[in-house]
Amino acid sequence: MHVLMFGVGENPQTFVRNQIRFLQESGAKVSIWEGNSPPRLVEKAIATVETRYGWTPDLLGKRRALLRAADVYHFQWPHNLSRYVRVIRPFNKPAVLSLRGRAINIVPYIPGYESFARALRQTLPMCSGYHCVSKAILREGALFGLVPERARVIYTALDLSFFTLAENPPAPEPLQIVMIGALSWYKGYEYAVCALERLVKEHGLNARLVIIGEGEDRDRIRYTAADLGVTDRVILTGKLPPDGVRRLLHESHILLHTALSEGIANAVVEGMACGLPVVTARSGGMDEAVSDGVEGFVTPSRDVRAMAEALARLAGDPALCRQFGLAGRERALKQFAPDRQAAEFIDLYRFAIQNHARKA
To answer: Which pTM was predicted?
Structure first.
């Protein structure tokens, strides 16, 4: 099986790197379409290329050979498919598209992105197969032209040999609540800060909130913390390397997730793999990863009171924390294992090839 991937980028996100690695370990050949060179140059297959793009006739030939050699094209993001659809069409190969979260359940609904929504409706029906990170994302995709019969839900795998249980429990105080993710409005960090305020002022707990990540909402989070009088209890670490993320997970008591919309948050699964109980808002596919009362608590979205009460209940019951944490680790091992993900991708590629052949 030879897979040509588009949209990997020069510094791919961890889950994309893992996907490629797990596929290669399963025996698949993975090639990567590199760079952001203008696709029109490939479309025209011209012999002379403007040097400012860094293209040469030899490079064009190699790229055409790669397009011919691959069994299936895998597009990591919808905008990659929209951009290269005219490039791949002459080669008549099956295309698989990944649908994860923001690109399908947020961006199409933002004013000013109507052209993106139109592009989704034009390109999604062309695909021979779809990789959806959750059932919720599959349902969202169907609103924009995804054909459900061609879709497969493949949960994002983790390196479970890296995200492990902590050797020693964290110090009992202060209660450390950890969050991981881009600092963007749709992650709902303001609700987390409000829940922290209730936890401290109404429940009388010595607690702090550690947020790992970077993004445009950093100042909004800082302002909210200052406005509510909990500045000294909200710690923004910025982006951390994987070992730094793991260290803070091991030092924390609870993982909190307050996103307003989500596929399935990889950060939550990382916390589960490290044995942390989870408090998550019910958004997108989160209840496909966390069952209320099993691996943690699932609260209504934006319900600050419910979030604070769930956190307080866990803070007062270490045995329940351990129970939820071990259940989360077990679920991560079963549902988010690398060998399972690789096998499901190979099955999806085979299905896409067969489906494409039937259409041809």
So the answer is: 0.87
